[in-house]
């Protein structure tokens, strides 16, 4: 089977690239190793509400995500931040701070980020999306690239004129490239941390917002843990009420205990912070991204306390220069690792191809390449 463009990875960058190409009449095939789309953009349904267990917030000044949400008619709403923040020292002492509001100005997507994933997927032909399809190797050919991998426990092969990799760079580094990519570029792939890959999120859903009753915002910063950071996660509708936290234990420590034990530790911590009302949630949920083999590698088990500097310029061996581009969010020179970086990279990749084909591009996104070397690349659309 042959296709003009193959995009590996069904997160937001890959989805946006394929969606934009199809909107302008250019066929593209999306290959996703999971049985679902969205990648790190994950909303779960629980107790009648939708909760984001990956990216949870967006901000003003992010034009691509704003334009995309407006296109699909998806609303946003402000993160709740009324009331005091709790700060817990390493000794366990808890201090109320009515001045600090770290989440003020942040926005959440009505219905969760899964709505955006679903909206993009609904406008891509079903036959152009292949789930449970793990690419393990890429082979250079005179006409393009042959992709090899596993689908439904069987082998598959696909010929493509051009390939975009929208997978975490460390995941891409494990693929077999023939001919091999340059050692320095392989080192860059392995050295680039995947944002959120070392993180785990804990969600507790309650019948009532007891923190509001205590004039608290739900925001917590703790140096003791196991929850390092907490925020309210109640949907826009006002129910069910929820708190969402980042687990401070690193991935290696979490591997040594069960999910059930980790949930118990988190509930004990919530009770320390908010009192007995926090001890009996309706339900709890944990998503540990370090246990997701399509997101994290062994190198990702250590969580970052700061946002890494992203934006990489990958120089592959000359044979690959006009065959492959990396479009995952971590390659973005602005907003790297974030939703905005993913959307911008996906749209920019598609728009560069459309520009080569002299297609008129609509106002969504930008036709300026994020990669400073991309503008000089040539594109041969002949596929056997």
Write up this protein:
With about 375 residues, the chain is α/β, with parallel strands linked by helices. The protein contains 9 helices and 20 strands. The strands form 4 sheets. Strands 1, 2, 10, 11, 12, 13, 14 and 20 form an 8-stranded mixed sheet that branches. It has a 7-stranded mixed sheet with strand order 8-7-16-17-18-15-19. Strand 12 (about 145-150) and strand 13 (about 155-165) form a beta hairpin. The longest helix has 18 residues, at about 340-355. The radius of gyration is 22 Å and the shape is globular.
Q: What is the string of SSEs from the N terminus onward? A: EHEEEEHEEEEHEEEEHEHEHEEEHHEEH
Mean pLDDT: 91
Structural class: alpha/beta
Helix content: 10-25%
Uncertain parts: 365-384
- Outline the biggest β-sheet: 8 strands, mixed
Strand content: 25-35%
End-to-end separation in angstroms reads 9 Å
Q: Per the principal axes of the C-alpha atoms, what is the gross shape? A: globular
Round the Cα radius of gyration to an integer and report it.
22 Å
Number of strands: 20
SS element count, helices: 9
Furnish the topology, listing elements before pairings.
Elements: E1 2-8, H1 12-23, E2 29-31, E3 43-46, E4 49-52, E5 58-59, H2 63-72, E6 76-78, E7 84-88, E8 94-97, E9 106-109, H3 114-122, E10 129-130, E11 133-141, E12 144-151, E13 154-165, H4 169-173, E14 176-178, H5 183-191, E15 200-206, H6 210-213, E16 216-222, E17 227-232, E18 241-247, H7 251-255, H8 259-274, E19 283-288, E20 324-326, H9 339-356
Parallel strand pairs: 1-2, 1-13, 2-10, 7-16, 11-14, 13-20
Antiparallel strand pairs: 3-4, 5-9, 6-9, 7-8, 11-12, 12-13, 15-18, 15-19, 16-17, 17-18
Helix pairs in contact: 1-9
């Amino acid at each position: 089977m042959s296709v003009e463009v193959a995009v590996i990875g069904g997160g937001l960058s890959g989805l946006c690239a394929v969606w934009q190409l199809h909107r302008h009449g250019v066929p593209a095939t999306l290959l996703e190793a999971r049985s679902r789309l969205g990648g790190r953009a994950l909303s779960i349904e629980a107790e009648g509400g939708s909760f984001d267990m990956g990216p949870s917030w967006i901000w003003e000044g992010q034009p691509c995500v704003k334009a995309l949400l407006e296109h699909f008619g998806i609303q946003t709403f402000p993160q709740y931040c009324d009331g005091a923040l709790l700060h817990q020292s390493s000794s366990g002492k808890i201090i109320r701070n009515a001045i600090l509001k770290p989440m003020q100005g942040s926005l959440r997507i009505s219905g969760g980020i899964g709505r955006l994933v679903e909206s993009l997927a609904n406008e891509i032909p079903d036959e152009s999306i292949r789930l449970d399809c793990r690419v393990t190797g890429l082979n250079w050919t005179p006409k393009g690239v042959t992709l090899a991998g596993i689908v439904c426990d069987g082998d598959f092969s696909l010929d493509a004129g051009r390939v975009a990799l929208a997978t975490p760079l460390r995941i891409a580094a494990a693929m077999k490239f023939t001919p091999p990519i340059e050692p320095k570029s392989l080192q860059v792939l392995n050295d680039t941390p995947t944002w959120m890959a070392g993180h785990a999120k804990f969600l507790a859903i309650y019948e009532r917002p007891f923190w509001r009753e205590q004039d608290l915002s739900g925001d917590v910063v703790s140096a003791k843990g196991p929850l390092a950071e907490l925020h309210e996660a109640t949907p826009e509708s006002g129910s069910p009420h929820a708190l969402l936290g980042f687990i401070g234990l690193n991935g290696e420590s979490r591997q040594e205990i069960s999910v059930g034990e980790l949930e118990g530790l988190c509930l004990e911590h919530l009770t320390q912070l908010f009192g007995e009302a926090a001890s009996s949630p309706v339900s709890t949920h944990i998503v540990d991204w370090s246990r997701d083999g399509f997101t994290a590698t062994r190198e990702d088990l250590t969580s970052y306390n700061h946002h890494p500097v992203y934006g990489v310029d990958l120089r592959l061996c000359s044979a690959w220069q006009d065959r492959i581009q990396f479009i995952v969010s971590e390659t973005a020179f602005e907003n790297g690792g974030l939703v905005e970086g993913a959307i911008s990279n996906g749209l920019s990749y598609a728009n560069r191809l459309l520009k080569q084909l002299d297609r008129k591009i609509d106002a969504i996104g930008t036709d300026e390449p994020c990669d400073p070397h991309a503008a000089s690349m040539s594109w041969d659309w002949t596929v056997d």
